Amino acid sequence: IKNLESGYGEMQILFDISLDVKPNEIAVLIGPNGAGKSTLLKSIFNLVDIYKGQIVFKNKNITKIPTHELIELGISYVPQGRQVFQTLTVKENLEMGAFLTKEKDLVEKRMEEVLEKHFPDLRKKLNEHAFALSGGQQQMLAIGRALMQDPQLLLLDEPSLGLAPKIMKGLFKKIQEINEEGVTIMIVEQNARQATAIADKIFVLEDGKVALSGD
Hints:
Layout: E1 2-8, E2 11-17, E3 26-30, H1 37-44, E4 49-54, E5 56-57, E6 60-61, H2 67-73, E7 75-78, H3 90-97, H4 104-118, H5 135-147, E8 153-157, H6 165-180, E9 184-188, H7 192-198, E10 201-206, E11 209-214
Parallel strand pairs: 3-9, 3-10, 7-8, 8-9
Antiparallel strand pairs: 1-2, 1-4, 5-6, 10-11
Helix pairs in contact: 3-5
């Protein structure tokens, strides 16, 4: 990300943001509420207005590329608040994550990988509606849905929000496992202690700027 400035309409949130994340790293964004952390992830996923700067992914300038094309390039985004499709079943939610994949066999293969490798607890819930799941299970489903597109870069916005400590600890372990399979991960997280424990890089945002960065 080079000299990025973005926001919502006339409300600028980010000011001259520059940062670099290498393949297979876990990068954590921390900072106070309103610092611009979520806006940074949304900028990468082209969900906000970008006024200036560049976002480069795999040597390609993706700054103005539509969101659905970013998914095709290998970027997946899990928004804050476990935004699953509440009235769809767990299986249907996972299938929605692979909506760009035309081959039925490939969708089934990826679903099996998500259930077998990462979230086996969801297997027995496949035919239940998402609203019937616990908060932790809904977060697993949201991440599992993002993995259905086989991403190379996974953007996670506050994945531990509202989760019990034990569930949170297990979730961060799963995030590490996903990273170990070769997925680069950027996380916005309020629980700095848990997040920085698994991070390769840390960026502290304050008032829409990078105040500190390091290993």
